[in-house]
Amino acid sequence: MPEPVLVRPMLFGSLFRRAPAPGGKVLVAFASQTGAAETIAWRTANALAGASLVKVAALGSLDTAEIAEAGTLLVVTSTYGAGEAPDSARAFERKQMAQPGAFKGLHYAVLARGDRKYDATFCGFGKSLDRWLAASKARRLSDVICVDGDDDTAAMTKWCELLTRLGATTSVEQLMPGPPQDWFLAERRLLNPGSAGGETWHIALTPREPAHLNWTAGDIAEIWPRNSEAAVEEFLATHNLNGELSFRWRGYWTFLRDIIAHSRLPRSHEVEGIALDWLVERLEGFPPREYSIASLPQSGCMELLVRKAVRDDGSLGLGSGWLTQVAPVGGVIKLRLRPNPNFHPPRDGAQILIGAGTGMAGLRAHLQHRQAKKLGDAWLLFGERGEKTDLYYCDDIKGWQADGTLTKTNLVFSRDASPRRYVQNLVTEQGDEVRRWIEGGASILVCGGLQMAAGVQDALVAIVGQEKLDQMTQDGLYRRDIY
Fold it and tell me: Is the pLDDT of residue 14 over 50?
């Protein structure tokens, strides 16, 4: 029997791939904001390639006729913001999902990714998509499967079981992203002493394995925050636990010491009299924290720009507190690299880079990429609180201006002006020039917080219109890394 045909990313948008075993057509569609849903979609397609005729496509690139053509539709989607569609599927939601389609005879299932802490909108777009497909007379293969973050083994087991029923040969481990890597905290430095805003820190990390210096501008670092070594050792000693025992946790085998390190420490009454297996199963693991990478691998380290979050009660944010205060310099940082193709460099050509605050991290990596390729015609629009304290990477900006990487730079500082102005105001004020750059083929990158990104989007819609912005999104010329 010939080897199964593997569906790989270079076949994106290709015709249905022929497989050695007979099977119906399977369309695997994805709607991804930071690349995780897209990765699962390709792994899903690879698992099915030996049993079916498989096509993979971005959901936003499909019309209802293409969906109806498939015998089976499997959708892997994330949810962005307050239950909204990812950028690449926003036009699809507005146009295709405005009314039911005609999908009688189509079988489907939806794997929806989200964050359960946003309970009211958890997996909101995935659930909306599931309801729309059902209203379009398609038949569910399964209730919508909601995945809470990257390490929801229970939900991914359900997806794996569904794929097995469709003829796939796979495992939960093959579908999930795998364990984090060991990196070392090489440097930590406060960048904005005296700022009217929160503290912002430069963080530099080096890998245990040099081969892990491998990412693309726009990719994301998932940091696994943890309890201090002292707290872990005290907990193990208090409850007479052997930290060298191994348990299956988050999809792979892990020492008890590491499980305790990356979980909320239970109170004594939650531990007493409980079997160890049950205790491990009940532990509430800390969710990873995502950070835009502010450097390229050629620098020999990974650089992050981290705002230290302080809660109302004075306690520190989980991830930012670990990186900026608790983790010892020289200590191990658990980190997982996440490819983020939706924010990778677009094609060469003129580019407008827009961001605010720590969003400068993602823009910096892209400007380093352009500098390395000797690409000019870049325009930076950036906003922060105060020019004297919060102009991060000032020397880099001067260097990019000097060597021609940046041909135009506009900065705005909200606390230095009255009334306050923000980067979205800057975009509006520069509207005629923005339109000329876009009409000349410029791409746009936006990096930073949700509120800023929404304001920038409204400004761009006012300048060029929703249809143009939708088309730029589909063409990969309008890309966002927002949080």
Answer: no
